[in-house]
Amino acid sequence: MRQAATFAIVFLLAPAGRAQNDWPAYGHDHVNTHFSPLKQVTPANVTRLHRAWTYHTGDKGAQFESTPIVVGNRMFLSTPAGRVVGARARNRQGNLEV
């Protein structure tokens, strides 16, 4: 019983140790809060946001949307063909390394 309790505590606290900029699950975390602790986007500057980059999968078919996850400064997303693509930003201009 004691081992089970220790495992449960470690399991529940493990997400707290992740990098603040990770988005490791749909909805950001295991409780689906959709909240990011990042401070770069504020009510004062949100209207100045713009698209940094667009990734074309090369898959044929209809337009689609994918909810990416971000772990360790790498973004993972699924494609319409069921592939998983990992990319990371190479510089501040939004160039991607796939």
Overview of the structural elements:
- This protein is an alpha+beta fold and about 100 residues long.
- The protein has one helix spanning about 1-15; strands spanning about 70, 75-80, 85-90, 95.
- Strands 1-2-3-4 form a four-stranded antiparallel beta sheet, with no helix packed on it.
**Structural class designation:** alpha+beta
The number of helical segments is: 1
Order of helices and strands: HEEEE
Low-confidence stretches: 1-14
How would a crystallographer describe the biggest sheet? Answer: 4 strands, antiparallel
What count of domains describes the coordinates? 1
How many beta-strand elements? 4
- Morphology call: globular
The CA-CA distance between the termini, in Å, is: 46 Å
What is this structure's SSE topology?
Blueprint: H1 2-13, E1 69-71, E2 74-78, E3 84-89, E4 96-97
Antiparallel strand pairs: 1-2, 2-3, 3-4
From the structure above, extract its key features.
single chain, 98 residues, alpha+beta, 1 helix
Concise structural overview:
Helices cover 12% and strands 16% of the residues.
